[in-house]
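TL;DR need structure tokens for one chain.
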Amino acid sequence: MDAQISYPALVATLNGGSLQGNPQGSFRVHDDEKFFINPELLVREDFDDLTSSIILISARGAAGKSRSAEELSRQLGAPLWKLEKDKAVGATSLLFVLGRYLNVTDVMAALASEESPTVLIDSLDEARARVSGTSWAEFLESLADASRHGCRFVLFGRERTLEEVWVSLADAGTSLAWIEISHFGPEERLQYVDGVVTHRSRNSLVLSGKYYQAARDAVLKSVVSSVPSQAAETFAGYAPVLDAVAAVLLREENHFAVSNAFGTSSGGTRHLQELKHILDDLLIRDQGKMKPVATQLGLDPSSTYGPEEQIDWLCHDLEGVRSQTSHTSVIPKLEMITSKTCDHSSMITLFEMTPSGQALYLQHMSPLGALRQSTASD
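>> reply
TL;DR here they are.
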């Protein structure tokens, strides 16, 4: 069974792994203090040795993975390599960037002379989509080699990419631990909503408004009530859900009216509308993340999947059926980009948890959807 660990406990475990050098743009220590709320972390069973040479940290899309990486860099004083801001990786990429950062020619000797040096690497998904299998394998081998010289790595990515990373590094004899960034706890999710509202609002006194807390709690409870009770805790602590709650509070300044609209059984379908906003935002976000990758591969960024095409592709992928989306036949490589960077876990979660998600799934799986509907009604 997966064990829970707090973010401060993770920091304490990794403490002492600072590695100072010359900032290189995409490779530097993030020392700027930004808004951050500690998420709950789950250490995977059988991958729970946090003294391992390499720690994998996965998260569903929009769960705060990159922000967590920046905060970990700040607290540890360890450099964070943002691969989405760098060139394609290969066999010599790590040695090159570390050599410039440390201002040395013999990187491995420099690492061996440091006490528990730690390097954080984010955006493995985007990096994987830009390179061949051979270049990717050589890059991972360079990480394994550096770990044998005393360097610890913390790698951030989505589950599908990290599974591939795990197989390669385990075969290389590297010790591995795996942590999942889960959801925000009850107190943390309220802090998150309040923090977002404070940051984006032009009214510094908005949190002290007479009806603010009642409106916040009513919106969150109403949206979460759309999912089964066993999933409610996780869903309520998912960052896109909390962002949607904050958006309502920012969009509608009459918090008394908001409290009444969401806090009564006669509130209609407002909560379902907000769920649709969550789905739309996730899809638009993923399309935006794929456009730079397409450009770097010499492909037309306008050919990346839009929201409707993403849903169509994902639904067919879940059923093991090839999508008939036009882009797939015209530009097959875009399907590879989608499989590496498009967030499956977030959408699957919403499909499973929400009535609107289930309806959307059935709609896009016609005629498979129609068959399911008729079977369910028998």
